[in-house]
Amino acid sequence: MSDVSTIDRRAALDWASPQAKKRIRRRYAADRRLQAYGIIAIGLAVGLLGILVTSLVATGAPAFLQTKVNLEIYVDPSKVDPKDPAKGNFRAIVRDALFAQVPAPETDKQKTEVTKILTSDAAYIVRDYVLAHPETIGQRITIPIAVSDPFDQLYKGVIPREVEALNWTQERTFDRLQNRGVVVTHDGKAYLKLDAYIDPAKVESGDFTGIAHESLRAYLPDVSGTEMFGMLADDAPDAIKGRVETDPGVVGKTIQVELPVSEPYQTLAKGETPMVLNQRFSPEQIEAFDALVAKGLVSSPFNWELFLNADSRFPERAGLAGAITGSFYALLVCFLLSFPIGISAAVYLEEFAPKNRLTDLIEVNINNLAAVPSVVFGLLGLAVFLGFFGLPRSAPLVGGMVLSLMTLPTIIIATRAALKAVPPSIREAALGIGASKHQVILHHVLPLAMPGILTGTIIGMAQALGETAPLLLIGMNAFIPSVESMGVLEPATALPTQIFSWADSPERGFVSRTSAAILVLLGFLVMMNMAAVALRHMFERKW
Amino acid sequence: MEAKVEARPVVNVQAPVVREEQGAMAAEQHELKMTARDVNLWYGEKQALFDVSLDIFDRQVTALIGPSGCGKSTFIRCLNRMNDVIEGCRIKGDIRLDGENIYAADIDPVQLRARVGMVFQKPNPFPKSIYENVAYGPRIHGLAHSKSELDDIVVKSLMRAGLYEEVKDRLSESGTGLSGGQQQRLCIARAISVNPEVLLMDEPCSALDPIATARIESLMEELKETFCIVIVTHSMQQAARVSQRTAFFHLGKLVEVGDTTTMFTNPSDTRTQDYITGRFG
Ligand SMILES: Nc1ncnc2c1ncn2[C@@H]1O[C@H](COP(=O)(O)OP(=O)(O)OP(=O)(O)O)[C@@H](O)[C@H]1O
Ligand SMILES: [Mg+2]
Fold this sequence. Notes:
Oligomer: heterodimer
Strand order of the largest sheet of chain A: 2-1-8
Radius of gyration of chain B: 18 Å
Number of strands of chain A: 8
Bound molecules: adenosine-5'-triphosphate, magnesium ion
Number of helices of chain A: 22
CATH class of the largest domain in chain A: Mainly Alpha
CATH topology of the largest domain in chain A: MetI-like fold
Largest interface: A-B, 20 and 30 residues
Distance between the termini of chain B: 41 Å
Strand content of chain B: 15-25%
Order of helices and strands of chain B: EEEHEEHEHHHHEHEHEEHH
CATH architecture of the largest domain in chain A: Orthogonal Bundle
Strand content of chain A: 5-15%
Number of strands of chain B: 10
Shape of chain B: globular
């Protein structure tokens, strides 16, 4: 009997058979496939994250530096009354200081242009400095003054000094003419050799420009628009006019003319790329700025003002201090509301609530609450907190209240999970020695659940920190130019809403500042999540 | 000899009561400590105990034996109302401690559990220091009025649990860092720190090696001079070694109870005989 069954089993489990080997191979292949899928998935995730962070760093990095001019300023007592320094004519003082360093501009327009090198806030920077140091009146001081956005971008190499004068279509069009042999060169100057019909009517009205244009258009029948006429130099019509004047017989005939091409096309004909000065700068400005750079007055130190200044209309002066303060107040309110309420609710539901329809309903609704889109909470805040209770608009108090609506379910769910994870043996131990229910919970269960609760809370807070929509709805995207006036009940802005408003601004400087602000926000999020991980490690389960 | 000792206050025992040393132990000399009469218990719809009636005497060890799932733990947990916290658990019958119905409306289960302490199968020290583990009970029951009194209770309890010598240098270290046997003795120290009248032990040695088991058994030998001990065990030898009375449970019913020696030499019920000779269970 037993012999037979042993033999049977041997036959069934012949590990050396080809089928068995095939099975093993297939199992290994499946294992490897599964692993490969996992690695591909992780690679994709990490890769995308890498792309996101690199692009943010690439665009945001310049915002962490700010170009400044170390300007020597004479605080002229004739312009600043030592008795009432706030009323001084600081604009003139800054102007004089700047003009002392650069080639003197002539016209008033040029003077205005050159002063635009410095930030429009320059006078206020000097005023604030002098107000803080009244003893400097009548002395020479050197303070760094931020340059305006275009020059900041120029110095940091974000925007070029010169741009290509011609676009791709213009170059292609000229190429076509060159290929057809229309472009000829004498003495280093390029001409267009065109057949021109000398229209008597146009000669009559003196419209030689029209004749030149007509003849050029005949060569490029498929090109519409007037852009191509830019190819002709300003004196091209004069060449036709000269011909007509020297030989009136050509009127009404078609003749061959050589028309000079305009400046950028001259360069292009030489095989070089024509460049022009970036339209953001005037030649006087560039000359003055170059003079400042040549004197070694320009530098780009780390941009502490990004963290110390509040918002400003001028990107070179705009900072995140207001947004960080606003976010801090809102999160503080959010924490003070949602932490105690969330824990109390979770403890009640987990430890005390009888299991019945009502508590089931409450439980389901709390879980649903966690899935409600944040914009809905924003609308609720708008309708209830602002509309019904009449709380102040844009205030961190209301922002925090709305955010706490979102973090509450997160905290309740995390707390309940943490309470559930406390082993029953600890409860039994405490009960067995005669601890009452509240003693069991307060002395044993809650302390053991605390790391889980804190982790959940921090993650909830991190979510709240990045939440934009509800804050926009209650108007917490106010323009806050100074941190001093901020408070829980005062209008405020927050980090995500600040990012939102900066992203909406057209100035070049705000583009990099938006990325920088996102990096700062991400930095805070990473810090908060690391704190959560650290907490988890610190209170590693000890039972 | 007089079995009756001084009347105890319900909880606030000021200091461990040292009882008179007992002479030779004859069952009739032992005072009746707890009585269970016609105890029926249901977990939801399922009945786990059927008409259990059992007397438990002071200053001796009563062992509960029986096959797995027969209701030993359920019964022992009835004695300090630990079943109250189980959802859907209903109990009918009458359990008395010193003649007082512990399920009466005016009995506070929290106070009861201070009088009827419990040691569990798996050592479950609090994740706190050794000192805190033992000091917790006296502290919540207000047994110590000063730090030195509390220190005194902690040291005495650890000594009686036979753990003091091993841990006296590291009272502030975590109780969970001890070995399994030390942890279980810590749990015993914690249980006796509030000076209970009855000590319930549900398989206290099942997670321990023979040496640690021997230590705990000799500890029980000492403790029974002061306490009324009820122990659940799966080991016939252990029951025979440590207990004076043995109760055999089967399928939620108390089949037989009697002197341990009689139970193991001359059981009256065939099921008991089958069980202790190892034919089932
Ligand atoms: N919390 C509970 N809910 C429902 N049924 C339970 C519960 N606890 C125990 N039971 C049931 O009650 C019966 C008795 O269980 P109990 O734990 O008292 O057995 P036991 O004798 O201690 O067994 P073991 O020796 O294995 O510990 C078993 O059938 C068990 O399934
Ligand atoms: Mg059991």
